From TrEMBL:
One of its GO terms (molecular function) is protein N-terminal-serine acetyltransferase activity. PANTHER family: RIBOSOMAL-PROTEIN-SERINE ACETYLTRANSFERASE. InterPro entries: Acyl_CoA_acyltransferase, GNAT_dom, Ribosomal_N-acetyltransferase. This is RimJ/RimL family protein N-acetyltransferase. Transmembrane segments: none annotated. Keywords: Transferase. Residues 19-186 form the N-acetyltransferase domain. It comes from the Bacteria.
Length: 215
């Protein structure tokens, strides 16, 4: 029996013209952690509600490794978060998260992502999110996808706009004793269908359906 037999998510792979999205091996987690340690955003920027990327390099690396393990260890079909490592030519570039609660009923996912700083501004974020959403909409039957971004996070908002997300109000959270407002964005199936995903392949999803709470 292999690890994929026990945990079929390790056999789930999404491929695009440039990228491969899948769960990392333990060795690859170390390489992914190094990408985070090398930097995720420019100094002075604060794109995340949980300011993990502002921590010292070693703490950033540990945060990424721990997040990878904890998401798998705490997985439940009605409450899951899939952290897909984004690879190009075998090297990790960052992570796209697809998360949901009661997905079998609600058919709604939320997405979040980060890329190593040196991989920004190359269209990788858009391509990686399109790949993850192809899994959600075309293979798992999602009806909606949501995302949130601070008003000054132009890169994240730009990706959402390209893929057809629409404004969905605001959310208010507290970070370091300060109230922060985020733009909520929502993508419905009708607008999703306008996206070209002809160059995207998804393998291994059938064995994972029960883990996502769908048949």
């Amino acid at each position: 029996m292999t690890l994929t037999d026990v945990w079929p998510l390790f056999g789930l792979v999404i491929r695009t013209p440039r990228l491969e999205l899948r769960l990392p091996t333990d060795t690859e987690i170390g390489s992914l952690a190094q990408v985070a340690a090398d930097g995720v955003h420019e100094p002075g920027q604060r794109p995340f509600l949980t300011p993990w990327a502002e921590r010292p390099p070693q703490e950033r690396a540990r945060f990424v490794a721990q997040g990878t393990w904890s998401s798998l260890g705490g997985w439940e079909p009605d409450d899951w978060g899939l952290g897909l490592t984004v690879f190009a030519d075998g090297s990790p570039l960052g992570v796209v998260w697809v998360s949901a609660s009661e997905f079998g009923v609600r058919r709604e996912v939320s997405t979040a992502s980060w890329l190593g700083l040196r991989h920004h501004r190359r269209g990788i974020g858009t391509e990686a999110r399109l790949a993850a959403l192809t899994l959600a909409f075309d293979h798992l039957g999602a009806a909606y996808a949501t995302s949130e971004a601070f008003p000054d996070n132009a890169a994240s908002i730009g990706v959402s706009t390209k893929l057809g997300y629409e404004p969905d109000g605001i959310s208010r959270d507290v970070r370091d004793g300060e109230v922060l407002v985020s733009h909520r964005l929502r993508l419905g199936r009708e607008r999703w269908e306008h996206n070209d995903r002809s160059g995207i392949e998804v393998d291994g999803v059938d064995a994972c359906r029960s883990l996502f709470g769908v048949s």
